[in-house]
Amino acid sequence: MLSRRALLGSALALSTLATPLRASGKSPVERHGRLRVQGNRIVGDHGRPVQLGGMSLFWSQWMGQFYNADAVRWLRDDWNISVVRAAMAVHQGGYMTNPSRERAKVEAVIEAAVELGVYVIVDWHAHQPEPEAAADFFASIATRYGGHPNIIYEPYNEPLPEHGWKTVLMPYHQAVAARIRAADPDNLIVAGTRSWSQEVDEAAADPLGDANTAYTLHFYAGSHGQHLRDKAQKALDRGVALFVTEWGTSEATGDDRLAWNESREWLDFLNERSISHANWSIADKDETSAALLPGAAAKGGWKDEALSPSGRLVREMLRRRSAIG
């Protein structure tokens, strides 16, 4: 675990970069176009591997104030993100309780991403399956927004260990994908895997039939290390593409120690394999993985004093990224 002095020193060293690195004046979507799976990589219209880097918003029912165009614009311009994840809560007062309210939050982020030229992950943020509701929701999103290459569908955030790949998850993903593909035959789908989206090797052994589906890998650097990287490598060796739609600098609880050295090991692994990633999370909750400190403004404009230690380090990591994503 890094000391507070070491963490602040790392952040200061990184902050010597005054502006994000960009290869051209083009937006990420202008550079890469529609994403597709090719072998065990995600590529753009140009046929080259694309590695996106960005941020996930927090559960929409609890941190909905950050679901706005100004926040997305700030993340693009100041944090250098190429992807934002709209984590639409399904249970615990989310979509199943108030669908119009939660959908409106997601649509605000989608429309901002389209305007700003970044990719957007539409995340069904749940641990329990709701196949009919999910299929209806994603069919509607695909019908309305599927013509935009910005859209990435994530139909099931983190299935639990008891949700078997063959018995629960394959039928679920196939049903939802069928509804998506009826309206949008082209945009990328990222399928959640068993045990909080960690059993990627299991999914790779019996992949879904959709040719443009990647598989979700989640990790929290303080809890998940080489064992999970080995599972990820096994999945890649079996020929499937992975997308880290959520990762944290903390323990799996989202809190406790800030595991930046372990995070760097993970980022090296992802960079070497062109695996896209979105950090958890844009939130001002008092916990380690939250990028913002309590009371941070809802619409961006965050100075260093509004960022948590994790937020400072992740922001500067994203600002150092080249134009690969």
Automatic annotation (TrEMBL):
Tell whether 4Fe-4S is among the UniProt keywords.
no
Say which family it is in: Belongs to the glycosyl hydrolase 5 (cellulase A) family.
InterPro entries hit by this protein: GH (IPR017853), Glyco_hydro_5 (IPR001547)
**This protein is called what?**
Glycoside hydrolase family 5 protein
- The Glycoside hydrolase family domain covers 45-285
Q: Which GO terms describe its biological process?
A: polysaccharide catabolic process
Q: Does the keyword Cell membrane apply?
A: no
Q: Which organism is it from?
A: Sphingomonas gilva
> Per UniProt, what is one GO molecular function of this protein?
hydrolase activity, hydrolyzing O-glycosyl compounds
Keywords for the protein's UniProt record, in alphabetical order = Glycosidase, Hydrolase, Signal
Kindly indicate where the leader peptide sits in this chain: 1-23
